[in-house]
Amino acid sequence: MASKKMADGGLPVIARFEVRHRNYLAPDGSISRPLPAFASDATLLVALYRAMVLMRIFDRKAVALQRTGRLGTYAVSLGQEAVSVGTASAMRAEDVLLPSYRDNGALIWRGVGLEEILLFWGGDERGNHFSGPLQDFPFCVPVGSQAPHAAGAAYAFKLRRKPRVAVCMFGDGATSKGDVYEAMNFAGVHKLPVVFVATNNQWAISVPLRLQTAAETLAQKAIAAGFIGEQVDGNDVVAMRAAAEEAIAAARDGQGPRFIEAVTYRLGDHTTADDAARYRPAEDVQAHWKEEPIARLRTFLVGQKMWSKAEEEQLATECHERIEAAVERYLTTEPRRPETMFDHLYGKLPKAYVAQRRELAGEDDV
Fold it and tell me: What is the pTM of this model?
């Protein structure tokens, strides 16, 4: 005991913890530290860039549809594209994604159709029947409630000895919910193959981070649950890909859960039902535009001779064409008949509901 370092008051220090911060590309696109090996793969970096650009243009179109009464309330990802794209790009097809309502970029990367996303936000649950991996979970609108589901899925993987990982994404506000703490505690105790990704965009609707938590970082919340938490520059898609790749590999290898705090900024409103100008100074938003992920990666790619103006113009054209085609498919989708609300409720529909279904369907009561 005498050889141990003594803290204030002469008490022994029994444990020390640290949280590391990861970034590779500075806001101006310059390299801040040696890049991971995959960053030399121009094909991959361009794919990441194209996915982020598609997401931003798609968001813009979705907002236009909502403003003209052709879509319901919609949550944009403006400024946060690197988090979802970087995370999803590190996953395998057999892994399972548990997204929040703002992770369209991850869904699209994993094969979800643009028209399916529009269907969901248009109020049609058929949008959750993804073209991507069918075992991925649907959109989760309740804040943080997907975290226990992630722990449950990961527990099943461990019990079945499947080399699969559950990747759970949520916002900074979700870290104030008991659902998230309980899921993390369970995952830590059982060393489950799950990665929690908290998108720290500084705002839980109108509540700033300083009123969400007194913790210096969100990443340190993993320490209490017994596993590693890392803070990452969420505006650096290279850092997000690298962090997710390492965390998912560790979880798959039986090393237990990991937590990634992706520090970014919500450049848009919380949803189309929100007006962030009522609680957020315009000068703060303008300052954060200098850090946004798409311009950062584009500057790097151009500097490395991996991207050109002609390719940028072609990409914009391709994105617009793809999005407009998806919008057309969405708008021309026949609405579901009202009696289908009874489908999938039970293995066998109770008699009382059978009669109601027939009435809605206009069928004679036999």
Answer: 0.93
